[in-house]
Amino acid sequence: MKNLLKSTLAILGALVAFTSCNNSANSGGKSGALASNIAEKVYVAPGEHDEFYAFISGGYSGNLTVYGLPSGRMFKEIPVFSQFPTSGYGYSEETKPMLNTSHGFIPWGDSHHPDISQTNGEIDGRFIFINENNTPRIAKIDLTTFETTEIIEVPNSAGNHSSSFVTENTEYVVAGTRFSVPVPQRDMPISEYKGNFQGALSFISVEPEHGHMDIKFQLLMPGFNYDLSHPGRGKSHGWFFFTTYNTEEANTLLEVNASQNDKDFIAAINWKKIEEYVNNGGGTMMPAEYAHNVYDEVTHTATSTMKKEVRVVNPSDVPGAVYFLPTPKSPHGCDVDPSGEYIVGNGKLSANLTVHSFTKMLDAIENKKFDGEAYGIPILKFEDVLAGSVEQPGLGPLHTEFDGEGNAYTTFFISSEVVKWKLGTWEVIDRKPTYYSVGHLTIPGGNSRKPQGKYMFAMNKITKDRYLPTGPELEHSAQLYDISGDKMELLLDFPTHGEPHYAAAMRADIIKERSKKIYSLAENNHDYAAKSDADTKVVRKGNEVHIYMTTIRSHFSPDNIEGIKVGDKVYFHVTNLEQDFDVPHGFAVLGQNTSELLIMPGQTKSSVWEPTKVGVWPFYCTDFCSALHQEMQGYIRVSPANSNVPLKWSMGENIE
Amino acid sequence: MVICVSLLVGCGGKEEKKKEKIKLPTKTEKKVEKKVENVPASKTIDLTNKGIGPINSVTLGTQIDKKMVAHGEDVFKKMCTACHRTDKKFIGPAPKNILDRRTPEWVMNMILNPEEMTQKDPLAKALLIEFNGSPMANQGLSEEDARAVLEYFRTLK
């Protein structure tokens, strides 16, 4: 009886619990309904497409990742500065030259700030540029193929950080040095930094049709650290703005010694003026060594050319081209609003956010209101160029983006938040916490005359407890906010790969329409392409063996090869004969000291194998391609170095 | 994949026995097929089915168009020989005498629209099974190219 009572009570209790649960769900319906409303805002139904592409830098992965917004789904990792075994980038014979530098082959890079090409101040979705910080380089990615097609090394630069931002018509992609160095590099005492080191700001011209890059000139600036930059636009088109720090020119313990000055500078560069000077023969050609690597989509092959000189310009030789705008205190981000009037200096160690006025700057220049000079470069008076300050908006401002509605959004690393404020009145409108320690933020089209608004995402440096733990190392966390209303609304957390330093985003429609589905087999002009079964062959040249191989669902041709010897250098040149969307084939051979190849339809890729062991070794397709993928294999016979086994190959019949 | 590899490695020494064991079930499957349908899809004659795809009607000239044949042969060599031999079964069936077995429309639709054909057209579905699931690749031919290949097929007798 007691038991019965107990169980009855238990059931009743459970019922009460259920009921109260329901009640609370109903009464707390706002949060429930709101939560589902937020879920709907980021939900992209199966088979449907996201509205925006986001290109997020991979930082120390050396690459660039492609995401969809608002879903936060990652679509692709584009290899840029690092070898990528998934596709064979930097491993295949065709792509190894992409990673060549004046320091030799470098398998890794630190990618930072992607920026999409522009026409008339609006992003056009043709190319995306990204800088390598460690061994200074700028890469161009073609957004029809989402492949890296060009990399240019930047000489006289070190810590290529205030890069790779484009001017309004992609006339230039600009790369500034973070670390000043001896120019040209030479053996000298580090302690003699001050007054001797220089900071090179490179203006790399972009040829309009194919986007080919060439260093037009390098401006050799005083030995400060050039941290970030942005182009003028609209009324300020023709100018470029760089934040500086370490105007103290310290060469040790910078965390103390580079924080002494009350103000550092934003350098304002009238590049149109310098361009004119250079076009009239100004500047000097200086010996230099830097690699220019270009991938040809018809030969499917990259070539690396070592360039031998670069044009340098001394700023004091071009009067009226360079000015310093005093900006408190070690400014990091240097952001220009869509109208081109306001230049925001995000002083990392400053209590207030400083905004300069382009109009006031021109006026001060015209009236020669200078407040001294640094290395011959006029310094303008802070009060004369100041548009306004956002008073105590947060701690540790880093970067600002714009929504095109007159609002700015600034990240604060130390206080871990994004603050929305109004241009012109400088009042704070809203603030939202980020989880945790936000670095960059991006609004689609945020670095252009016409931001596309709607969303903003913050890229956080620290993840901590936001996801299931994955040991000591965690992927960084990004957070997506709806910015269509007065107040920002946090919608979604999503992980990013490597360390994202900045991202570029834009409406998907333009890129989507142009995206290539296959490479034309007819146009394939690779030296070792086998464009049909009749072209397949094996050719020996001394101890080099070239295998002209084809692949199509679901076989290789040839798939039986004999007559290879230990000590041979065997080149597998594999052409994918498919002409259908999304039918790549892979290739790998047992014991190969390199990565697989992933070959797109119509493409040829080559892999080198230097067999060290006698035997019959299989090769196979690594990408599940069809119902008969498991049958997609072949054998290559390796005989002793002194053997007389003749070179033979076949497919579909016995080799003898 | 991992399981397959380890199986293969594990059975390395007894490969012949392994092969026999694998062959048995496929033999019985074939017997079942034969009971249902005696003529394989590659030999079936159907001169009414036009297939599924962009081609509704093709008019063959009384004379073979030699210029078109040359173009078609070129396209065939470049885009089709990875899987087809003109006169014998290879990865896919031989096109020799194909117009004795199929309508010209069916042939062109099979070239231009193989994914849908192998999903919906009864003959194409049966062919996919007969050829062990080896898919007919869509090589992105234009209608003009496909028509030229068809003209070339008329010469294969």
TrEMBL record, chain A:
Signal peptide: 1-25
Keywords noted in UniProt: Copper, Metal-binding, Signal
Entry's Gene Ontology cellular component terms: cell envelope
Entry's Gene Ontology molecular function annotations: copper ion binding
Compartment(s): Cell envelope
Family annotation (PROSITE patterns): COX2, PROKAR_LIPOPROTEIN
Domain of life of the organism encoding this protein: Bacteria
Descriptive protein name: Nitrous oxide reductase apoprotein
UniProtKB/TrEMBL annotation, chain B:
Signal peptide extent: none
GO molecular function, one term: metal ion binding
SUPFAM superfamilies on file: Cytochrome c
Pfam families xref list: Cytochrom_C (PF00034)
Sorted UniProt keywords: Heme, Iron, Metal-binding
Keyword ATP-binding in record: no
Domain named Cytochrome c: residues: 67-157
InterPro entries: Cyt_c-like_dom, Cyt_c-like_dom_sf
Keyword Hydrolase: no
Protein name, UniProt field: Mono/diheme cytochrome c family protein
